[in-house]
Specification:
By secondary structure, this protein is mostly beta strands. The protein has helices spanning 124-131, 147-160, and strands at 24-28, 31-37, 47-53, 62-64, 67-74, 76-81, 87-90, 94-97, 103-106, 113-120, 133-134, 166-168.
């Protein structure tokens, strides 16, 4: 076994309080994502994102080179994985999405869902910042966008996805 490296005193303790207005809160694909712990804070090892998913919302089908795990904190979501039948997850349940596997999730309920998303390694939070709209808080709704503005953001996401090891699927 390789001996542990010395402690890196340049890295400090990170405390994230989800309702902190100084955190990065982004409206993305109709959801509101709060970056609790960024790759910048973990030397790229992982990122932790608090996701508020309104009824009927969720990302389109996609895949990426990194592992992604979701813990449902409130409500429920339906996860589509490859060509398998959808799986409904409720508060307290966790799912791991293997790297490179096609997937999506959607809130099919009539109440908001809240997820805690961990990605390893980090980078997803930087991708969201490329096309998401900054909002004031974890519970702030996405700004009203015209269909043209929505399409422009989706195009931007599709253009930038390969730079983050992602692919948006039809």
């Amino acid at each position: 076994m390789t001996p542990l490296p010395d402690d890196d005193p340049r890295r400090g303790l990170t405390v994230a309080r989800p309702d902190d207005p100084d955190l990065l809160h982004l409206a993305v694909v109709g959801d509101t994502y709060t970056v609790l712990v960024s790759g910048e804070q973990t030397a790229g090892r992982y990122a932790l994102i608090d996701m508020l998913v309104p009824p009927g919302a969720g990302p389109p089908p996609h895949r990426h080179y990194f592992e992604e795990s979701f813990r449902v904190l409130e409500g429920s979501v339906e996860v589509t994985f490859r060509d398998d039948p959808p799986v409904r997850l409720h508060a307290g349940e966790t799912v791991n999405i293997p790297a490179n596997a096609p997937h999506a999730f959607r809130n099919g309920a009539d109440v908001p869902a809240r997820l805690l998303c961990t990605v390893v390694p980090a980078g997803l939070e930087a991708f969201f910042a490329e096309f998401g709209d900054r909002v004031d808080s974890r519970t702030a709704p996405a700004p009203a966008l015209s269909d043209e503005d929505k399409q422009a953001r989706l195009r931007r996401a599709a253009e930038r996805a390969p730079d983050y090891g992602m692919e948006l699927l039809p």
